[in-house]
Amino acid sequence: MRINYDELAKTLAALTHGEEDTIALMATMVCELHHADDRFDWTGFYRVTQPETLRIGPYQGGHGCLFIPFSRGVCGVAARTGEVQLVDDVDAFSGHIACASSTKSEIVLPVRDAGGVLIGVLDIDSDRVAAFDRADADGLTRLLRQTFGG
């Protein structure tokens, strides 16, 4: 099953209406995303908790890395550059951090609050090579803006 971003936007809007707590929003979004698409093997947020450092936030799937510096991995690049990272083959990505050996491809999106401040990244891993595309990047970006305002 492949995610329907328009339908998920409606579901998330209904589930999170009036909620302002960032962790509650992240947890709800991750749960809905993870169960909406069978390509999603690990779905989670890494939160900016101190300068140049991401710490694991709400997630679904196996264990994730506890912290990631902005200087390392796909998540670090997304946090450092503020740009969506679409990685078709993690083994070909220089500096990839292997939190799970099952990960074959990855999409990571920066997450900003309503003021434009980077609050974390959304990381989705797949056990399939080239699992993600521009439509996923666009759909996920819309969901993040809807939920966090950035």
Low-pLDDT windows of residues: none
Helix-strand topology string:
HHEEEHEEEH
The total count of helices amounts to: 4
Strand order of the largest sheet: 3-2-1-6-5-4
Gyration radius, to the nearest Å? 14 Å
- Tell me the strand percentage band: 25-35%
Instruction: Report the principal-axis shape.
Output: globular
Biggest beta sheet attributes:
6 strands, antiparallel
| Terminal CA distance | 28 Å
Structural class: alpha+beta
Write down the overall mean pLDDT: 94
Helix content: 25-40%
Tally of extended strands?
Answer: 6
List the helices and strands and how they pair.
Blueprint: H1 5-16, H2 22-34, E1 42-50, E2 53-60, E3 67-69, H3 73-81, E4 85-87, E5 105-112, E6 118-126, H4 134-148
Structural descriptors:
single chain; 150 residues; alpha+beta; 6-stranded antiparallel sheet; 4 helices; 27% strand
Question: How would you explain this protein's 3D organization?
Answer:
It contains four helices and six strands; from the N terminus they run ααβββαβββα. The chain starts with a helix and ends with a helix. Helix 1 (5-16) packs antiparallel against helix 2 and helix 1 (5-16) packs parallel to helix 4. Helices cover 33% and strands 27% of the residues. The protein is α+β, with helices and mostly antiparallel strands and 150 residues long. The longest helix has 15 residues, at 134-148. Strands 3-2-1-6-5-4 form a six-stranded antiparallel beta sheet, with helices on both faces.
